[in-house]
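Dear Dr. V.,

Thank you for agreeing to look over these. As mentioned in my earlier message, I'm a first-year student in the group and I'm still getting used to reading structure tokens, so any feedback on how I've presented them would be very welcome. I ran two proteins. I've put each sequence directly above its structure. The first is here:
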Amino acid sequence: MASRVNKIKKTPATMEEAMDRFITWKKANGISEQTLLDYSTHIQLLYKRYPEARNSYDELENAVCEHLSQEGIKPATYNNRLVYLRTFFKWCCEHGVLEDNPLDGFKKRKDEGRSVTIDEEMLARLITLPNQETFAGLRDYALFLMFLDCGIRPKEAFGLMEDDFHPRAYEIRIDATKAKTRVTRTLPLSPITVDAISELISIHPEEWKGKAPIFCTNEGKPLTRHTWGDRVEMYGKKLGIHIWPYALRHAFSVVFLRGGGNAFGLQRMLGHVDMTMTKRYVRLSDNDMKEQHNTASPLNRLIQQKKRVGKIR
């Protein structure tokens, strides 16, 4: 009778080994490359700032408390640190690295999100700024159109290949492997956006075919969010405004609703799993609320509004 070897669970010897195994485990579970990078960044930042956190549980607990109580920390930053680190520590507890999770019991802070004032005239001017006589300018023009046409995430846009673009159907397809939520979705495009993307693809050198993303550098390399952020900032300075990539996604959301778009349709286009995140993009300004009220007040239908005549002299 053959001898049977029971499953042996080896505990990581160091926190570095634990992090490596944790990242490998997350990767095996289909987590996106960007999320894996975010995990690594947050974990490494903690131990870089507080190397003594490796020594004992008490020092680790003190370190995470200081890390989260940093002066001036914004709710979004606090929540990101909390979520990424707590997930890592939970894995460490399950694998015998830690006995307790130092972040158990911590709650997220309410994040109102970054306020964006949407000036449609300014957006219209922004679209006209790129020099379409250059590769970078045409690319930027096509990106501006696409971001304001369908609200795609920058990271998703930069991963699009020519096969993801369907000009005859006026749509682009975001494969699950490229989507933040790991769910495939198809986004409709306006004719002007389709024309701009088609023109951009037409000037790609033949050797780029099947290799370079649609929106790439003039050397055919993938565009990064940092490079795009610098480009957007440059255009913003020309207009005298501060603008960043995700502001375009917010702008799409608000203008989409102002134009009569449905909130649930917006949720699907943005790729949100529920309405929680969508609500952050669709807060209405005071003027928006007044316009909505003037248009949709039930009294408009229930009571016939009489014309009023003032005092006649």
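The second protein is here, in the same arrangement:
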Amino acid sequence: MSITIKSAEDIEGMRLACRLASEVLDYIAPHIKPGITTKEIDRLGAECMAQQGTISATVGYQPPGYPPYPASLCTSVNHVVCHGIPNDKPLKKGDIVNVDVTVITKDGWYGDNSRMYMIGECSIAAKRLTAITFDAMWHGIVQVKPGAHLGDIGHAIQKFAEAQGFSIVREFCGHGIGQKFHEEPQVLHYGRPGTLEELVPGMVFTIEPMINAGRREVKEHGNDGWTIVTKDHSLSAQWEHTVLVTETGYEVMTLSAGSPPLPPFVTATKT
């Protein structure tokens, strides 16, 4: 495995890309309400990127075995776990939607993040899943420091989520990121402490747990080649940040004015 360690100059490029990715989510947030379509959300995201001078990493993205992805954002509604393709179906009161955006700056750096949005008043169950998934992501983030291991991150997320009665999707994971969309290492959201790669300063990767209200099993939906749903049709939620390993801990890079407040057990976005 070859993990790219970012230089100080690289990190500055990543900070810009990640802030801009977060600002796309800020830009679309006021518009996400009952009646909007995910295709309109996608249009707004593309509009923001054009204003920034960034481009979407997902338009035309085609890993082996997949068709080209057709949109600027991924919009995953209710039981859609990930890679939901924007469409013309209006969102309705009570829906939950994950919006995942990855931008590329003119200097070639990628910034990747996602947030959950609740459409109008949602059920207690939907609110709880969304909140627990957010906290689970942060339980993983706070494990990040030199000398820790990737398994510490996954274990912290899994332990917290499963204690709440939820399940961790295992087919998808976080990833290194830089001047490529997906770099080493893979960042599992489950695992055992002290296992897998040791963290060193200059590593940059995403932490992006997908957590289901029901069972963890997922399946492909339809024939678009992308959309993944829960097998039992239970709700699924996801949050994502891009994180830097610093000399003393971690720095959450995908932050902007509209980022959600920290959970009570987290004191800082940088340690």
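From my reading of the second output: The radius of gyration is 17 Å. The chain has a mean pLDDT of 98. Does that match how you would interpret it?

Kind regards,
E.
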